[in-house]
Each structure stands twice: as C-alpha cells, then as structure tokens.
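Sample intake sheet
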Amino acid sequence: MMHNHRDGQRSTEAEAKLEAEIEALTSQEAEAAATLKKKIPLPLKVFAILCIVAGVAILPMIGFVIVAMVIAFREGALADDSTASTVLFFALLAILALLTVAFIVFGIRLLRDKRRFAAQTAELLTGLMVAGILCDIMLFGLDGTVLFFVAFIVFLVVLTSYLDPSLADERELQRKLRDMETREDAEDGTLGRDETGKGFIALNFFNLFWIFTVCCVLGLIIETVYHFVVVDPGHYQDRAGLLFGPFSPIYGFGAVLMTVALNRFHDKNVILIFLVSAVIGGAFEYLTSWFMQFAFGIVAWDYSGTFLSIDGRTNGMFMAMWGVLGVVWIKLCLPWMLKLVNLIPWNWRYAVTTVCAALMIVDGAMTLLSLDCWYQRMAGKPAETAMAQFFDRNFDNEYMQERFQSMSIDPSNATRAK
C-alpha cells in the first residue's frame, strides 16, 4: 500500500510538472505571437522609405555607369588599365547594383512589416557589403568608403537581431537555460558538441572563434618549423601574419572553413575528407595570395615552377598538405579541441571570448591599416592623415619588413588606382 501511495504521489508530481511546462510553452508562444504583432517603429519606417527612395534614385545611375564602362571597354578606352583592375571594377559595379536592389527590397519588406524576410535581406546585404569591401580595398585601398561599409555592416547585424523575432526568443531562452545546461554539459564533457547529431561540433561563434585562434597559433608553429627544417635548414624566419601576437590568420580561416565544410563528414571516409580539404585549402590559399597582391602589392609566397603550380599561388604539394591537415583536423584534433576549449570555466567563457574577440578584431584592423600605410610609403605617397602619420611613426618600413619577414611589397603589382 505504501508503494502504491508513493507511485501515485510521483505520478501526481509528474503530471503537475508536465502541466507547468505546457503552461510555460503556451506563455512563450503567446509572447512570440505578441512580438510578431508589434509594429515596426516610426524611425525604421522612415529608414525603410529612405532605402527605397535612394535605391530607386541610384539604380539608374549605376546602370548608366555600367553601360558607359562597357562602351568604353569595347572602344579600348580602358586599355591602359590591367585586366585585373578592369574585372574588379566591373565586379564592384555589379555588387553595387545588387546592393541597391537589395536595399529596395529591404525597404519594402520593412514597410510591409515582414520582419523575418527583412532580416534575411539584411543578411544578404551584409554578405554583399563584405564582397564590396574586398573589391574596394583592392581598387582604392582603405578609404572612407570601407569605413562606411564596416559601420553599416555593424548596424545591419544589430538590426537583424532586432527584426527576427526568433532571435529574440532564442536569446531569452538561452538566458534562462544557459547556466544550467552549460554546467551540465561541462560536467559531462560534452560542451560544444552538436546536439542535433548531424555534425561533430556545434558551429557557433564561441567554437569557431577558438578554432580560429588556436589554429592561427598552431599553423604559425607548423609553418615556422617547416621553413626552419625543410625550406631553409637552420634559418629561423618569423612567419607571423598579424601585427601583434603569434598568429597566422590564413591557417585560422582555413581551419574555420574546413570545420564548417567537413563537420557533417567527420565520420566519413578519409579519402573524401582529404579531397575536400585539398580543394578548400588550395582555393583559399590562392584567393588569399591574389587579394594580398592586388590590394597591397604584397607577395607572401610564390610556388612558380613547382609541381601543379597555379599562378604560383598554390600547388599540388601544398594542396596535398591541406588535405592531410584536413584529415588530421577532423579525425583527431576536433575532439582534442573541445577538451581544450572546455578548460575555460563555463561561467567565464562568454566574457573571456568577448574580450579576446575584441582584441583579435583590433589586431586584424591594425594589421590591414599598417599594410595599407606600408603600401602608401612604398608608392611614394606622403602621410596626410593623423592615422597615416601614427603608423609611419610606430610601424615604419623597417619594422614592417622585420615583422612580416616572409612578405615582399611592390606597389606596381597592386590593382588600386595609382
């Protein structure tokens, strides 16, 4: 009888708990519905109208410029420009045209209160602006246009979080459950795993940032040792890629790309992982070399004359090395990476990551600015701004050559306007 009484009591408690959960879910659904019903505030409506008006006004102008450039190209008026400069300029015009159309669509969706679709359009705008920044740097260097694009990207990221109600719901849910779930996962040793089971690791900012950071350091160590042992035995060369710290960002970005691309294939055949890693690594190495040369006239490596060399920017041997690194990374290093990241106390991890990410962004921005000022000095252009004078004083040619020992700079190789 006592046993039946306890079972009945447990059953009653379980039913009460279930009812409480259902009530909580119902409350959350009601809150989400209320969020969806909220109208777009007046300032955003004004911004939406400005987007539409500006887009409608600018689009014909961009179309006219594109037509004029095509006519000029056919008549040979651009013969003095390099092929790369011409291609980049047309690419920039195409991106600007797509951006203008996207702004019109974005404004319409805002006015119609299509929050989720507006958020998706904002994400498209962000991607197009990143592409525009890269083209603009290669054509004109780091000018005011780039700073405007960067500021607007920050604004769009914030706006996307505000517009998409599911993001707000997710943040609210995470605030309530994060401490409890994180503590449990940390105790179980599963923190950072993909809960869906589709991949090995959760592709969130926390994991990807630390993958980037750790692989920046590991890649620098591997490349330095390889150069010391194989390329120039007994001769040490600093292979760093950022202005401060032991970081080589090409390996960090490469590891992030491979993790995103291969996360779902972590349990697949090593041959497949090898081939995908080789293609991703080779393509990324090629594009990085291309960007550095055409943006700043910098050549950091040259594989001309080697086996399966592609414009000297990558070759068969290094693509194979990327393939091997991809296999080792996915099969062996990711589990180790999770254990390493989980050494950060769970209640510190977000604050530590935020501070480190901010420092890394500052380091990356100062690196680009220092490279741009290095280019300006080598091109014989005087430092006219306070920023350029600051970099001239603190990071002169001698410092830059000593810091980036693997790089050589020649402004004539760049595609930007001379």
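Comment: Residues 2-37 form the longest helix (36 residues). Residues 1-7, 32-37, 186-191 have pLDDT under 50 and may be disordered.
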